[in-house]
């Protein structure tokens, strides 16, 4: 805050100096009550600066109009230098802009909808469009500036404008579309000026140009970038009270002083990611590039060709092409990147699937500028070993083999920053993982029956291949055996089931079937529903006890409310399918009751309450090792629901309150399968939001189908909460940035300070970092980027390497 204010003061100083030097004595004063209109002839559509160089008002943007500031060029060619609310859609019909007494600029569209463009919130006396390109609003008393466009740059700096430390320019989307685009220029608080793709967090791996080395990473001086009127672009350090010190002069384009009144300099972060200094001569309308960073080859801009594509520079033009195995997201807009050209992404469930579904193809003349998520050192691997290492790793989609050192680098999705040139790096061979497109169907199906090999890190790849070959043969035999025997098993089961029903003794210890209770039985067992254990989204839960001989067994009886209208038969079918799930980390369903409109479920009783109580309660706190174990328990429970029982079950409402602890402190997931009772067809889009705020994946709020990945998101939040023993949203923290755990975890991860997440606790930092990485992958906004639960378990168990997660929040620049 302080840094900002000081810089503003410095800026004002410069401003007033430049005003004096240009002798701007007669400024057009715009008085409160004035209006502009986009199309109506009753009002002007813009306010011009004194000499008509700059205009503020409505300009044509796409099919409509936006409010902005532009350089009035010759022959109606305007150069937009600032846009208000640039990400709002342009107004299409007649709109007016009002300058009010209280210093606001209000946009009113034809329907009468009002939108605040500027809210200075102080009584204003006037506004002015300066010849510098700055639009300024003055207050009532001393003509102090209460708002100015120079404080809110979009993609352009003009002469006498500065960019304070911590500030940034964001490129436009395209030449014609001034919404926020794909690149940013950051004036860092450490004194460095750096270009990054917009979606990245500012680490050196993502930077594609920097003005120099950072001066200090600990001392936060008040550095700022300043472009002076005569084309000098510099980084300054302001000490607060004395004159600012020059730190770094980037370019000096100072020209003949006589032309200064008609020469306008501007530094823009263009839509293609290059930061350019332009000079504009008003006398003859020329607009010339003085310098361009990082250079004239856009392929040097990281992310110029977006995900999964590569950049080539031919005939002085950049071209984006998809890597093998990918196709354009939008073939009209090739810079937007590519996606996998088949639908099976995420199919990889383990090493054997890698071999079954994919093959590696090589690519030549490639320079890869992204950081690998895994790199072998001094292993003297062969090219085949390297390519195989990638093939059997579900996270690996490209392998870079360095023939000289025998090193192998693995790259995960999305594949980024790839350049192809004729003089490409010939010591590195690149292999891409692509779909084996002719996989017979039977093969796809039989991989489902693969017994999970107990994969261990020490198994060499050759051994893996052997295991796989042996198990394949074994599996084919096994498959036929299953087909033949399942018929008989089915018969035997039916017989057994029959026998049990016949004896009428559906004891609670039996694995096979659920017991059907009468309502009166449950009323008795719960002592007229006396002791309420909790209230969930589906209804209340009561403690009860069943007597079996002399032993008493506690149960939890859930009275379901708010069910979809459903017949008894459908309800029973659903409940029986829940009853078929048996897993150490799932709460067992013991029985049910259907009578008239009454629907009750009977579960085993969990004596140690919920994980929520354990983590956030004020009793004993689980230690680090216990929390790690609990996190894995939960993951295995969800994996079973998703992958290993009959038909996947989406839980839809995972949260610590729905995870219960038994007498041995084993975590067990409760309430699974109930979402289906409320919304029978899980494959359709859910129309009613079912989950719990804070744990819900972002797609619940968008109109897109809910998939298993929604549970993965919730798991990610639960994982973070479990690791850090605090709620995701917690206002009782020391620093504002710590309030939202997910955001803070990402910050700590980027800064490599995950131990900050669990202060005053001795933890294994490597384990913690890996688990935080997994959690960050789980909470990606984009469902496709989230791993499957299988992937999560493999990563948590340390079986697969974990790629560096991108920022989970795709909206954050
Ligand atoms: C700019 O592009 C965005 C995203 O494609 C779009 O939503 C917006 O309407 C476009 N704006 C204009 C003025 O074309
Ligand atoms: C400023 O004035 C406008 C209209 O005159 C009004 O809508 C807005 O609420 C006012 N803002 C404040 C902060 O008073
Ligand atoms: C810009 O900086 C140069 C070098 O310091 C100086 O000579 C020139 O007068 C400055 N221009 C303005 C308008 O301040
Ligand atoms: C920036 O200014 C401060 C205050 O005058 C000073 O202490 C510091 O050394 C300066 N930093 C550099 C890199 O010049
Ligand atoms: C620049 O403009 C100012 C006022 O607009 C004028 O006083 C000054 O003489 C001009 N300078 C040149 C070199 O034309
Ligand atoms: C435009 O005018 C400037 C000076 O006013 C001069 O330097 C430049 O060469 C001119 N450009 C053209 C194309 O005439
Ligand atoms: C790689 O570059 C060399 C050198 O220009 C060229 O001869 C070769 O054809 C290129 N390879 C491919 C596959 O384009
Ligand atoms: C790679 O290029 C260098 C020089 O461009 C050449 O000397 C070397 O033989 C090449 N290596 C291979 C493997 O082609
Ligand atoms: C493989 O499984 C799919 C869906 O699970 C099924 O539609 C298909 O018929 C199966 N193919 C064979 C050959 O069993």
From TrEMBL:
Cross-referenced SMART domains: B_lectin (SM00108), S_TKc (SM00220)
Chain ranges of the Bulb-type lectin domain: 33-150
PROSITE patterns according to UniProt: BULB_LECTIN (PS50927), PROTEIN_KINASE_ATP (PS00107), PROTEIN_KINASE_DOM (PS50011), PROTEIN_KINASE_ST (PS00108)
CDD domains, A to Z: B_lectin (cd00028), STKc_IRAK (cd14066)
Its EC number(s): 2.7.11.1
InterPro entries associated with the record: Bulb-type_lectin_dom (IPR001480), Bulb-type_lectin_dom_sf (IPR036426), G-type_lectin_kinases/EP1-like (IPR051343), Kinase-like_dom_sf (IPR011009), Prot_kinase_dom (IPR000719), Protein_kinase_ATP_BS (IPR017441), Ser/Thr_kinase_AS (IPR008271), SRK-like_kinase (IPR024171)
Recorded catalytic activity of this chain's protein: L-threonyl-[protein] + ATP = O-phospho-L-threonyl-[protein] + ADP + H(+); L-seryl-[protein] + ATP = O-phospho-L-seryl-[protein] + ADP + H(+)
N-terminal signal peptide: 1-23
Pfam families according to UniProt: B_lectin, Pkinase
Any one annotated GO CC term: membrane
Bilayer topology: Single-pass type I membrane protein
Subcellular location: Membrane
Transmembrane spans: 463-490
GO molecular function, one term: protein serine kinase activity
Domain of life of the organism encoding this protein: Eukaryota
Residues that coordinate or bind ATP: 558
Keywords: ATP-binding, Disulfide bond, EGF-like domain, Glycoprotein, Kinase, Lectin, Membrane, Nucleotide-binding, Receptor, Serine/threonine-protein kinase, Signal, Transferase, Transmembrane, Transmembrane helix
Domain Protein kinase: residue ranges: 527-799
Similarity-based family: Belongs to the protein kinase superfamily. Ser/Thr protein kinase family.
Protein name: Receptor-like serine/threonine-protein kinase
The organism of origin for this protein: Cicer arietinum
